[in-house]
Design a protein that fits this description.
alpha/beta, Rossmann fold, six-stranded mixed β-sheet, 51% helix, binds adenosine-5'-triphosphate, binds magnesium ion
Length: 373
């Protein structure tokens, strides 16, 4: 099968993956799957970091791709979710490989969080019972920083270790190619990965669903609400739709109230400082006025604006944008998205705008009116 055929097969299988929790078929992500297949088919052994807005679909995408390559004999995709305590739920791979990997992880790692540190030992053992020679191998490690945190390994040291190891793994195991994909939602750590770019590491940013894919998702889940309003609140974020349906039974006002409370409590702290209040105003007017995050602790402490940027990152309200050629997804042109920074989802932009306009806590109705006009 040629590369083009492989890609088309995988793209078509992706739509047969059933999303747990929503019980619908996986929506879109064609562009993203083409990227991942290109990384591996290109034949260069490399490490990739993928980050994106909270709940934009990183985990579900990695699982769906792993599912979609199941039928293709030349490919072995392994997915490990390092946030799971239940091993069965943490590991995902094609039938046969999953069972072997589960057994090996139990034998080789004291706990699942050791997985990223023991990858090579695991692969060597896997090779003894499963033929990896001549195959393309992709390893997804979801929330890899959890492991580094637990075992006090710096991002710099881990990336250096991967940098040295990846070609060796390929040679020793006789693989056609190997690629690792490190998924993370720890946005405050992205600058530490950025510092390591130049080794065998690239950083790519995933985005929320495109408008057309988001509309398809709303149809699939039989959403009874106004689609256009939801786009202007969620900006294509599938996790918000999951919550709206499964937690809030489509009660958009109650759901918005929760988000208003989050923004209001942050604002209540900010307004005690004139400098920060002015800064927030400029950010709401122009998201690109957010301060870049310095790596040195001294600078971080000196600048109050940096502290606020970090808080907005920590609360998953804003996100830095990668240059265009490192965007895994297409990022739409919308008023909540700048060139270097974006609001992760538009509702924070509209809520802060409403708060700053009246200097009082807005109601859900005010926000809904705001996005309807
Ligand atoms: N392509 C998709 N089609 C349908 N539903 C999706 C899709 N992507 C994500 N979802 C839904 O959105 C939810 C959130 O996605 P997911 O957990 O993958 O996001 P994430 O980016 O990994 O989040 P986090 O930032 O917390 O790691 C999923 O549980 C699923 O219900
Ligand atoms: Mg995730």
């Amino acid at each position: 099968m040629c590369c083009g055929d492989v890609t088309e097969v995988v793209v078509s299988c992706l739509g047969r993956y059933v999303v747990p929790g929503l019980g619908i078929y996986f929506v879109d992500r064609e562009r993203e799957v083409r990227y991942v297949l290109d990384w591996v088919l290109r034949g260069v052994s490399w490490n990739y970091v993928v980050y994106g807005p909270w709940g934009c679909g990183k985990t579900e995408f990695a699982r769906a791709v792993t599912y979609a390559v199941e039928e293709l004999n030349d490919f072995v995709f392994l997915y490990v979710d390092l946030t799971q305590s239940e091993l069965h739920q943490a590991i995902y791979a094609r039938y046969g490989v999953k069972e072997l990997l589960l057994e090996l992880v139990q034998r080789v790692c004291e706990d699942l969080l050791k997985f990223p540190l023991k990858v090579f030992a695991l692969l060597r053992k896997l090779c003894e019972v499963y033929k990896l020679v001549g195959r393309y191998l992709v390893i997804f490690m979801d929330e890899v920083t959890r492991s580094l945190d637990r075992y006090r390994i710096s991002i710099r040291d881990y990336v250096s270790a991967l940098d040295k190891a990846i070609h060796e793994w390929r040679r020793e195991l006789g693989l056609r190619n190997i690629v690792t994909v490190l998924l993370t939602s720890e946005l405050s750590l992205i600058q530490y990965f950025r510092r390591e770019v130049g080794k065998t590491l690239s950083i790519y940013e995933m985005w929320n669903l495109s408008k057309s894919a988001f509309m398809r998702l709303l149809e699939e889940v039989k959403c009874p609400l106004d689609y256009e309003i939801l786009w202007r609140l969620c900006g294509g974020n599938p996790r918000l739709i999951y919550e709206l349906r499964n937690v809030y039974a489509w009660d958009v006002e109650r759901w918005l109230e929760r988000e208003i409370v989050r923004c209001w409590s942050l604002y209540s702290m900010i307004r005690r400082s004139d400098v920060l209040l002015k800064y927030l105003r400029s950010v709401v007017e122009e998201i690109d006025s957010l301060a870049p995050i310095p790596i040195t602790e001294e600078l971080k402490q000196q600048l109050p604006e940096v502290a606020l940027t970090q808080e907005l990152l920590r609360q998953n309200m804003v996100i830095p944008l990668e240059p265009t050629n490192h965007l895994l997804s297409e990022v739409p042109r919308e008023e909540w998205i700048g060139r270097e920074w974006a609001w992760q989802v538009p509702l924070y932009y509209y809520i802060f705008r409403a708060i700053l306009e009246k200097e009082q806590k807005p109601t859900s109705e005010t926000i809904l009116r705001e996005v309807s006009t």
